[in-house]
Each structure stands twice: as C-alpha cells, then as structure tokens.
Amino acid sequence: MAKEMMEIRWHGRGGQGVKTAALLLAEVALADGKFSQGFPDYGPERMGAPIRGYTRVSGKPVRMHCAIASPDAVVVLDATLIGVVDVESGLREGGVILINSKDDPKALAKKHHLEKFKVMTVDATGISLEEIGRAIPNTPMVGALLKAVPVVSIETLVKNMRKEFAKKFSQKIIDGNVKAVERAYEEVKSNE
To answer: In angstroms, rounded to a whole number, what is the distance separating the alpha carbons of residues 116 and 96?
Structure first.
C-alpha cells in the first residue's frame, strides 16, 4: 500500500451485497495483519434502494468512525446509479472508480464525464451468474478491486474466503465464489 490508510466507498442497491463486500474486505485485511473497518450506511431502505458501504485499511489503528467523504477508490455495484447518485463525490483526480459493467471503461468514462479518474469495469453480474448461479456481484467486485487497489493479495482473499465461507456455505457455493473472485481479478479492464 502506497498510502498509510486506503479508504474505499461502495455504492449499490439493497440486496446486491454492498454491506457484505465492505465487511469482507475489512475482515480479509484484518486477517492479513492490517487494521481495518467496514460498515454500511443505510436506513430503512428497501430492496433495490441505493445504499453505501465503507472500508478503511491501514497499517495503523483506524480511529475514524464516520462515512468516507474523500475516498481513494469507489466501487459501483450497479452502473444505473451513475448520474442518479454522485458516486465520484470527493474522489481525487486520478482516483479509481470500479464499475460493474460490460461496457468498455473508456466509453463509460466519456459517457459519464469521468475521464479525470481511472475508470475500471468488470462484468461482475455476468461472472456471478456463471460461477455462483445468482446475480450477486459483490464477491467478484472485491476480486476486481484488489487488481485496481491491491490492499491485500488475491491469494489472501481466496484463503480467507475458503476458511470463513466454510462455516456457512456448501463447497459448491464456496468454489463458485472463489472462481468468481479470481475471474473478476483477471477480467477487469481499465481506461488507462
């Protein structure tokens, strides 16, 4: 990690796994010996309503307990939120926006006036349908994020997922999620 603390803001809709993704990355960072926190930001929203999640990863204890206003990276689990929600708010020029989309990242950046950012895309929904059997893009997006912002290694993520998921999921679900994470890591594209 080039920075002492990496701050990541997640955008999605209720039911897409924003909370789970934010917490998963924080748990993996913790297992990797880093300090971290992950939490959602939502009220009584219903399924499909826009929600946010946050993850902080640091080499030192994280003492902040607030929403992330100036993220280093933004992860968008639902591309239909772009233009509806100001997903790039507070993101510095050159910051990373990772979007769950089949679209080319250069075309998407141009379409939404995001050219001053490093825009990355991956078809996390398609990957999750093929590998897990459900349209839940959260775990593939974590894999793609690690390619964009390597706060922990993909190997550490996979090892932790296998261990933690074994407590509540069948081997088929575990294997599907691992494959989805690895595919997203390899298939993510950038506008640079």
So the answer is: 10
Partner residues linked to 7 by β-bridges: 56
The bridge status of strand 35-41 relative to strand 50-58 is antiparallel
Which CATH number characterizes residue 165's domain? 3.40.920.10
Best CA proximity match to 152, nearest among 179, 181, 125, 117: 181
Domain that holds residue 84: 5-187
Helices (H), the chain: 18-31, 105-111, 124-131, 138-148, 154-165, 171-187
- Whole-prediction pTM value? 0.93
User: Would you state the structure tokens that stand for residue 88, as one six-digit string?
Assistant: 């790039």
Q: What tens digit of pLDDT does each residue of 32-59 get?
A: 999 999 999 876 667 778 899 999 999 9
